Amino acid sequence: MSIATKTGDSGETALMYGNRVPKTDRRVEAYGTVDELNGALGLVRATAVEKLVQEVVLSVQKELIILMGELAVADKDRERYLKDGYDVATAAMVDRLTDVVNDLEKNYHVDFKHWATPGHSLSSAALDLARTICRRAERRVVALGESRLYVNPECIRYLNRLSDILWLFARYIETKGKERA
Fold this sequence. Notes:
The chain has six helices and two strands; from the N terminus they run ββαααααα. The protein is mainly α. The chain has a single domain, classed as Cobalamin adenosyltransferase-like (Hypothetical Protein Ta1238, Chain: A), CATH 1.20.1200.10. It has a two-stranded antiparallel sheet with strand order 1-2. The protein is globular.
């Protein structure tokens, strides 16, 4: 079977369970931006040498698949999605991210006083790019909810906490770089 199904040639795509929607649909914008974030995190993982960054980012990438799946389900299919046993974003997932934030702030010497100018290093720049995509994904998910479509509030909380981690990781890498210089 080919990846080129041609079913999207008319500007439509399928949500989970086959519902056809325009590619500009708010759900597609939301999960598509989370997918873009996941790709940017792949760049982070490929460029960062810090084991902590690599491990947290890989864990997050796996959890973003949960968010994408959940966001790709039409409201009318949500019960079916849950009944089929798919995972959803949880408070425990957000709590794990909060623990990372707390650990970074307490145990790592992250130096920040002002706005950051991305580009100190390839990996910190990749983290800042991922962070800005994360913020856009968060806005897309919030907009989806504002349109009166169902959004699990844990998805919003997850993306918000993740952007904090990405910002802190970028500053951590920059701080380590200053120490080496």
